[in-house]
Amino acid sequence: MYRAPVDEIAFTLKHVAGLQEALDAEQLGDLSGDLVDAILTEAGRFASEEIAPLSGEGEKGTPLADAVVTTPAGWAGLYRNWIAGGWNSLTGAPDYGGQGLPTMLSVAANEMWNASCMAFSLCSLLTMGAVEAIEAHADEALKDMYLAKLISGEWTGTMNLTEPHAGSDLGVLKTRAERAGDGSYRIFGQKIYITYGEHDFSDNIVHLVLARLPDAPPGTRGISLFLVPKFIPDEDGNPGVRNDLFCHSVEHKLGIHGSPTCTMIYGDGRFGDTPGAVGWLVGEENRGLACMFTMMNNARLNVGIQGVAVADAAYQKALDYANERTQGKAPGWQGKGMSPIIEHPDIQRSLVTMKSLTQASRAISYCCAHAIDMANSAQQRGAEEETVFWRERANLLTPIAKAFSTDIGVEAASMGVQIHGGMGFIEETGAARLLRDARIAPIYEGTNGIQAIDLVTRKLPQSGGEHVKGYIAELKEVAAEVSGKNNPDFGMTADRLDAALEDLEAATNWLLQALQDGRVKAALAGATPYLRLFGLASGTVYLAKGALVETVEGNAARIALCRFCAENLLAETSALKEAVTEGAYSLEQARSALG
Amino acid sequence: MYRAPVDEIAFTLKHVAGLQEALDAEQLGDLSGDLVDAILTEAGRFASEEIAPLSGEGEKGTPLADAVVTTPAGWAGLYRNWIAGGWNSLTGAPDYGGQGLPTMLSVAANEMWNASCMAFSLCSLLTMGAVEAIEAHADEALKDMYLAKLISGEWTGTMNLTEPHAGSDLGVLKTRAERAGDGSYRIFGQKIYITYGEHDFSDNIVHLVLARLPDAPPGTRGISLFLVPKFIPDEDGNPGVRNDLFCHSVEHKLGIHGSPTCTMIYGDGRFGDTPGAVGWLVGEENRGLACMFTMMNNARLNVGIQGVAVADAAYQKALDYANERTQGKAPGWQGKGMSPIIEHPDIQRSLVTMKSLTQASRAISYCCAHAIDMANSAQQRGAEEETVFWRERANLLTPIAKAFSTDIGVEAASMGVQIHGGMGFIEETGAARLLRDARIAPIYEGTNGIQAIDLVTRKLPQSGGEHVKGYIAELKEVAAEVSGKNNPDFGMTADRLDAALEDLEAATNWLLQALQDGRVKAALAGATPYLRLFGLASGTVYLAKGALVETVEGNAARIALCRFCAENLLAETSALKEAVTEGAYSLEQARSALG
């Protein structure tokens, strides 16, 4: 059973991501280190003791009958307990009942929710995205009507983007919106892959829906965002008339079986007198995509966190099994009978790989959250340059946090299955479920290929390439610090970090030059290996940053983990760099071999 | 839908694995190239047209009621058609109705069966293993009673090794056998993970069961192998009295849902007057493990083939989807509207990676089959030295064929899911099923970790290390040939092959030295990265070997694929070599970080 690694999470937040420094500089309001510890401890308890025991129930699925979805046994009550604990409102605006806590804390808590049960925790990720979009773009009337209930979690939110023909490319979506004349709109269309589009956790569901107005320009510049509630609130703000929308079907998926993935139908006349789902505009007409990006950035980081979470859950499960299961005699085994399989070096290699990559992706994701918090703090203080800097940092790290972490999630879950041997393939064990659950994260909220393209074509060119160069320079300082320590326990860590950062620098410069020269295709050809290179290099540097903190318990183990990663996994950056800088031509040629 | 790549399979057999040379030298009896083509073409037709359309039925599972397992709709008839076509008897001994064809052909056909439906095809893999064990070790009476029916496929076979506490370590198994006094034995015990332990394909099921005699020495030297039929044949050789064994339960698995994985109970008295399943000894008492290894080597190569097969099926499905699905505009796209996603360089990279690694693992597996055939041919001719050489070659390549190919199977299936985007996570699409099916292959027939240990500790030391060194020298000749061509289309292929083979050589020498020095733990620490390094290097050399054949159609595409692999994927060998030669110490240290 999952045990929330509260100490490791707190350490990473404070000493790797920069929370301690921000606390010391009073950049996070009156938040104290003690409060951080208290929140993390209680979140860990709730995740381990309340959520994890119910996670297996999700496998029974979410049956749909007459447009009503029934969630797994115990989950609706669990959700109510969870919101009663205030967990949905961590980062919400205090004006609407939120606790105004930093993103770093919400991300850390999300890791624990998702590690204990990804399918259950997905619901609130969407609500949090909706809250951000409404906070940033909706008018006061909509905010007053919806924000408090969404922030508390009394109502939940969804994101309605995808249509059968419009996935990564939203410019071609067809759902249409008509002006009703009273300031509201009527929505007509079909949306697919709507996570928690229908469920029994809450009294109302607030759908954020992308649609096109009749006179909208074609493509992405003609998309508007609408708020479309399942029940239209009455004058007192309570759920009133049923809106003309419903869940038509629930997908049969590889994983996250407890999370209903719905096809939603808007405006076909099933409910109400005249067809058309009543909606209200969020932001300006035809500017819906920009509003939706507010949700998507938040969601992307939190999907990255799902990767970290599943990787950690898989690691814990595999570690438990490796300690219990005996088989064969490992070299040097002095005990009686067979040795626990953890004594076999090959099993150790898998476990240490899982642990170090989990910690690396956790650090990247928390650093991304830190950048978001620093940007918000700087903005509140009116520090413009600082705001730009931290926004660019968050922008840079978001695709890495999303794609690298979710790839690690799948890899770790697969290694976890392998460590279980035949038991890993049997569903009762639970290791296979983690792999099935993990597999969605590289796909949704922008496939990892889209993340890599975003990294290369939008994030590298920020500030003319200066931002990413400055970031690499920061990483090099950490490497230099390791080198300066002259601590033999670090082994060849410093040299390996130097080599990896040179690879990162070379690949970055090559891509920036290619973009400048208009060789976009060549740059895109290397986007995925580049993102992997970026994640491996920065993640290992963050392991080193943590290992340099000698004052906190567990330092020897952190040095050992960092060294393993540097000496066993990091050298891959050289191959990845070559794929970026020299692979594009042969890729183009090999197109002919695809048959 | 899967289309058997008959031309590519025939090319690989003939020009990469060495079939053409063997035919020319008349080392394979009166087999002709035309007959090879005819067999492969007909196998391809059967796989694509008969098996593939029924593969989806397997998802409904194999319900068990009152010890009877019902296989998916249409499968029992499909099986009967398949054996009627003679497909089960390809390699069987002609004295018992087999066709005596080389392993190369059977392996190629197995690829097609497994690509069209792995769960269905698994049944015959086990039967083939049983045939080999009985041919090699059973006495004449048992052969006369069972071989013809197993070779035709009228009866099927199983392997009963695993018990709950005895998986990779068979020395601790508890199933017991008692001498009945009439030359037969009575078997008592429970076996798990018995593939097709019970089903309705055939009139009888012949179980090969490992068990321990009362006076057996402890450990692996006290294990005997028994033949235990479901129905004891009567005097005419027809299924007679029901034996005291039955299927107690069927596992709920991650994948291969159409293949019943059974827990078998022997000798609890459910059938027959006195408890005890009647069995006959195969080989000598207490020498059962050696007999079982005959089955396991065959099975390991064929499980490797399952990796190749699933990888190819995943590639074909992803290629079809990438050609059909339109989304966004790829750089340079001149067509109307959105481009097919295959136009996006990132998708191309995934597809070319899948294709090149599939072809690399296919070549390794076919070369392993070639070595088996060459050994058999040399043995028949009484050429002792040659026999030893080819046995050692087959021994060397078996763990690579098994582990590298099955890892590629999982990786390719996962990339296939990713290329499908959201559709990949929906079960109806079928991409997710390939991933679920693929995931068993790195586990069964000896986990890939066990394969890596086998490679390092048993295969490298063959002939004092000279065999593997000679093999690497052969690979270097191919690299030299590429270099000698001076064909600019090969790009940097020759240099990359040289570098990879130097890595392979360095890692091999390091491991041999470590074993010689008694540093077994350090050698084992690098076993898995070493196996991967071996597979990448040899697989890419085989791509080059194929690309050097200029006289066969498709040469330009083969050069392009080889070059892509060399310039984009092969450089990983450097990192893997470092993990082998320098990673062991830091791995040992990092044990402390496992918590």
UniProtKB/TrEMBL annotation, chains A, B:
Keywords of the record, alphabetical order, are: FAD, Flavoprotein, Oxidoreductase
Domain Acyl-CoA dehydrogenase/oxidase C-terminal residue range list: 286-455
Q: Which reaction does it catalyse?
A: 3-(methylsulfanyl)propanoyl-CoA + oxidized [electron-transfer flavoprotein] + H(+) = 3-(methylsulfanyl)acryloyl-CoA + reduced [electron-transfer flavoprotein]
| Required cofactor(s) | FAD
Q: Name one GO molecular function term.
A: acyl-CoA dehydrogenase activity
Q: Which InterPro entries does the UniProt record give?
A: Acyl-CoA_dh-like_C_dom, Acyl-CoA_DH_CS, Acyl-CoA_Oxase/DH_mid-dom, Acyl-CoA_Oxase/DH_mid-dom_sf, AcylCo_DH-like_C, AcylCo_DH/oxidase_C, AcylCoA_DH/ox_N, AcylCoA_DH/ox_N_sf
Q: What does this protein do?
A: Involved in the assimilation of dimethylsulphoniopropionate (DMSP), an important compound in the fixation of carbon in marine phytoplankton, by mediating the conversion of 3-(methylthio)propanoyl-CoA (MMPA-CoA) to 3-(methylthio)acryloyl-CoA (MTA-CoA).
According to UniProt, the name of this protein is 3-methylmercaptopropionyl-CoA dehydrogenase
Report the source organism.
Answer: Hoeflea prorocentri
Print the organism lineage: Bacteria, Pseudomonadati, Pseudomonadota, Alphaproteobacteria, Hyphomicrobiales
